[in-house]
Amino acid sequence: MSDGLTEAKEKAGGPVGLARLLNEIGVEITSQAISQWQRIPPARVLDVERVTGVSRYELRPDLYPPPTDLAPPGSEVSP
């Protein structure tokens, strides 16, 4: 299980809580389905981000690399 997925489940109160939150925004899903996730399905990342506040970059860094990873070399901003 990914760290982002674990964090999202914990913030929601477990798979049951996450399913409840997702159902409240119109995503029909069961806690049993969520319990089987090894990674959040691509179609659900933004919904989980919306209901838990866990960033898409944490939930699926393979699909949503952190913005700093997208900057071209040499374009770093000084603090």
From TrEMBL:
Ranges in a coiled coil: none
Gene3D superfamilies assigned to the protein according to its UniProt record, in alphabetical order: lambda repressor-like DNA-binding domains (1.10.260.40)
Chain residue ranges for the region called Disordered: 59-79
SUPFAM superfamilies associated with the record: lambda repressor-like DNA-binding domains
The protein's name: CI repressor
Organism: Microvirga arsenatis
Classification lineage: Bacteria, Pseudomonadati, Pseudomonadota, Alphaproteobacteria, Hyphomicrobiales
